[in-house]
Design brief:
The complex is a heterodimer. Chain A contains four helices and six strands. By secondary structure, chain A is an alpha+beta fold. The termini of chain A are close together. By secondary structure, chain B is α/β, with parallel strands linked by helices. Helices cover 32% and strands 25% of the residues of chain B. Chain B has twelve helices and 22 strands. Chain B has a five-stranded parallel sheet, with helices on both faces. In chain B, strands 8-9-10-15-14 form a five-stranded antiparallel sheet. Chain B has a four-stranded antiparallel sheet with strand order 11-12-13-16, covered by helices on one side. Chain B starts with a helix and ends with a strand. Classes of the chains: A alpha+beta, B alpha/beta. At the A-B interface, strand 1, strand 3 and strand 4 of A face strand 21 of B.
Chain lengths: 139, 432
């Protein structure tokens, strides 16, 4: 499983920049970051090289932060790579709550991170099908 | 023209004699029939027989909105429920509303005093009246409704909302008089213009815009938009509803129905009686109410009173427009809202912190109320849906308690201003 931070974000000018600045000042490197467009408020999700340090500095800077676990898989960066994984889960009626991904151009691999309705079942299915599960050390 | 000329033009001496006689009566009546008043008097050793002059009457303790709450719902009533024919209610400072009851005679007097200001500002039997006040427990709609029926006019009880349809009916039914809150009146005017209609397409000639404090400028604007004469009037649920005072056609102060209400203006700190034309808190006593007599009710409204006879030849004292409040009550689209009500809702929710901010504004002609609330529970961040659910739950609870739509905005912890002394949680951006 991959640990991710969730930060409450008011939709107002400069707020993401303030978060980025806090991380920069503390020399924290981000691996992923995702935020959707929202009207008044949203949740910014990110993974840092050092999540526990990142969480501490953000809290100290006044952000509301919590951590959650995601399922992370690595697939070939080619057409249909993600579709095969989602089909395995979809066939068992597992719903994806949210998902984001990024590609490693050098290795031609793609990393997919997601949250599902039934985590236990999803992990079981992925294991049974020999899908490589990631943790924070690997991504 | 007058509705009750012999009363409306009594000499000041006659008015004062009548008031003193009725004060003595209502004090004894309240003492004998409402345990709350008996206890209050007994506690300070005051007997109804001690009240012989207006000066003596100043020894009578005040009644406040909190007294209505602690006697909720019926304990202030002076007659058996058998004799009560109507209930109305308005907001309390927290939780429970203020509940009031009327006997048949009370309703008769109520409609008389409303009819007085209707006729004095030009309303006639021949008028067709669109009542765009929200019908319900609110005293405004039924108060004006009864008054106009008493005048003999045709009442269209359309209630508020559905503005384009209101304008269509106003035109088609050849409505001559409109009843609305000032802010809704302005919105209707704007809607009329947006529909491509001009005042000359309507038959409107009079507007009765009450239920919320409004400035002379607002009334001037309403007169201009519709090309009509306007009336402002004053009242409050605790003592009756609309009709306590109302303007005549000269728009030079609101004539108080002094045969039914005794009005005092008191210094807002010392509670000493203020002179004529001096600003202070308005304190009202009902002189003839049977169902729910109220002695010295602190309205918390600030105004002044002139006893100079009016050029319309009415002698009843005139009160000025309300220029402020001694408490933090807000009037949003005609509805009373207390910050304490908002606080009570939020205190019941664990997911939010203790800090909140209330922002009142006016968008177009409509008042808006936004509450900014700091979230405090990190678990909400596991799922965006939880945040939305919380916001919707708060919004629904506000609607239940306040009866109006509130915009709820969740904000980050510690992002709202902190206060060392008394928190100033309300930002009122209207009239700025």
């Amino acid at each position: 499983m991959v640990e991710q931070m969730a930060v409450f974000m008011e939709n107002r000018q400069g707020r993401i920049m303030e978060l980025a600045k806090t991380l920069k000042e503390n020399a924290i490197d981000l691996i992923t970051l995702s935020i959707a467009d929202t009207k008044d408020f949203g949740i910014l999700r990110c993974i840092a090289r050092d999540n526990s340090k990142a969480q501490k500095v953000l809290k100290d800077a006044g952000f509301t932060v919590t951590t959650t676990k995601l399922i992370g898989v690595e697939v070939a960066d080619e057409p249909g790579g993600m579709c095969d994984i989602l089909t395995l889960l979809g066939d068992k009626n597992i719903n994806i709550e949210y998902l984001y991904s990024y590609a490693h151009v050098a290795t031609k691999k793609a990393i997919i991170l997601f949250k599902v309705s039934d985590e236990e079942l999803a992990l079981k299915i992925l294991n049974e099908n020999g899908i490589k599960l990631l943790d924070n050390g690997v991504i | 023209m007058f509705f009750q000329k012999e009363i409306e033009t009594m000499s000041r001496k006659e008015i004062e004699n009548l008031q003193l006689e009725r004060i003595k009566h209502i004090v004894a009546y309240a003492y004998d029939n409402v345990p709350f008043y008996k206890e209050k008097f007994d506690k300070i050793g005051l007997k109804p027989s001690h009240i012989k002059t207006f000066r003596d009457y100043e020894n009578v303790p005040f009644t406040t909105k909190d007294d209505f709450r602690s006697n909720y719902p019926y304990s202030l009533f002076a007659v058996p429920m058998d004799d009560i024919v109507r209930i109305h209610a308005s907001s309390g400072t927290t939780g429970k509303p203020v509940v009031v009851g009327y006997t048949r005679k009370d309703l008769d007097i109520w409609s008389d005093v409303v009819a007085r200001f209707i006729v004095s500002s030009g309303g006639r039997k021949s008028d067709i009246v669109q009542n765009a006040f929200g019908y319900g427990l609110f005293t405004g709609a039924l108060g004006l409704h009864m008054g106009w029926e008493k005048v003999g006019a045709t009442v269209v009880p359309i209630s508020s909302g559905n503005t384009e349809r209101q304008i269509m009916l106003m035109k088609d039914l050849k409505v001559t008089a409109l009843i609305a809150t000032p802010s809704y009146g302005l919105y209707m005017g704007e809607t009329m213009l947006n529909m491509g209609l001009k005042p000359s397409d309507l038959s409107l000639r009079l507007g009765f815009f009450g239920a919320e404090a409004s400035t002379k400028e607002t009334h001037e604007q309403l007169r201009k938009i519709f090309g009509i004469k306007t009336n402002d009037n004053y009242g409050l649920t605790e003592v009756m509803g609309p009709g306590v005072a109302g303007e005549c056609y000269l728009n030079d102060g609101m004539h108080i129905a002094e045969d039914h209400f005794y009005a005092e203006i008191l210094n807002k700190e010392t509670f000493k009686s203020m002179g004529e034309n001096e600003y202070g808190e308005l304190v009202i006593t009902t002189l003839t109410k049977e169902g729910l007599p109220v002695l010295r009710y602190r309205t918390k409204d600030i105004t002044r009173i002139s006893k100079k006879p009016c050029a319309c030849s009415r002698t009843m004292a005139r009160m000025d427009k309300i220029i402020g409040r001694t408490d933090d009550m807000l009037i949003i689209r005609g509805v009373n809202v207390f910050p304490s009500q908002i606080e009570a809702v939020l205190m019941d929710m664990e997911e939010v912190g203790n800090s909140f901010e209330i922002i009142v504004d006016r968008v177009g002609y409509m008042d808006t109320l936004e509450v900014r609330i700091e979230i405090s529970d990190e678990k909400l961040l596991l799922d965006y849906g939880l945040l939305e659910k919380l916001r919707d739950r708060i919004r629904k609870k506000f609607k239940e308690v306040l009866q109006i739509d509130v915009k709820v905005k969740l904000v980050e912890p510690m992002s709202l201003q902190r206060f060392e002394g008394k928190a100033r949680r309300v930002k009122d951006l209207r009239n700025k």
